[in-house]
């Protein structure tokens, strides 16, 4: 990250060569360079240099990223339930995901802060990176419009958004299965522990999930909850297979 000494004296923007380097990293060309400069200016650098911080841009960027991610998920996963889409969106726009996107682009080398050594450690440093990514998205939107911004976000976050769908399933198979079953049959799946074995300190459980007493899947785990989640995961895999078979008929 850049410190305040690397700012041009009495200037409201970073040196042009630094901005051009950042544009190359981002794969975009800003007409209004001052928007990009503002997007990477942390509030800690404002008081000494009469700069505008990126806080307002963060606010706008957060909403824009949410819209683009939601639309992408909606279009590319037409069979996924609303609940799963919501979980995937929450994962894709989380601080962790935005930090990953920022680091892939090398944004941390360009963010302007007053005291890099103290501000960039731990949770605070991650928040600064996530905020900078949001602000850059907002700056691009104001400079180039929604179409260019969508292309940038989808390019920068494609793998992250795809992983978000997988993560939403991994986090709670039972909730996902329940949403699917209720949407199609208006019923709730029932879980039952078939058996358990092992010592009191090392038990293993076998669970099954049923619909109208018909087994949908089986699972094994070191706790009842884990076994039920595994049963739900097996049921979802079977469900997906049946859907593919129906499509091929």
From TrEMBL:
Which InterPro entries does the protein's record reference? dsRBD_dom, RNase_III, RNase_III_dom, RNase_III_sf
| tRNA processing found in the keyword field | yes
Entries under CDD domains matching the protein: DSRM_RNAse_III_family, RIBOc
Cofactors demanded by this protein: Mg(2+)
Q: Which GO annotations describe the biological process of this protein? A: mRNA processing; regulation of gene expression; rRNA processing; tRNA processing
Which keywords does this chain's UniProt record carry? Answer: Cytoplasm, Endonuclease, Hydrolase, Magnesium, Metal-binding, mRNA processing, Nuclease, RNA-binding, rRNA processing, rRNA-binding, tRNA processing
Q: What class of enzyme is it?
A: hydrolase
Residues that, per the record, bind Mg(2+): 58, 131, 134
Location of the protein in the cell: Cytoplasm
Recorded protein name is: Ribonuclease 3
Please report the organism this UniProt entry assigns to the protein.
Chthonomonas calidirosea (strain DSM 23976 / ICMP 18418 / T49)
Q: What is the lineage of its organism?
A: Bacteria, Bacillati, Armatimonadota, Chthonomonadia, Chthonomonadales
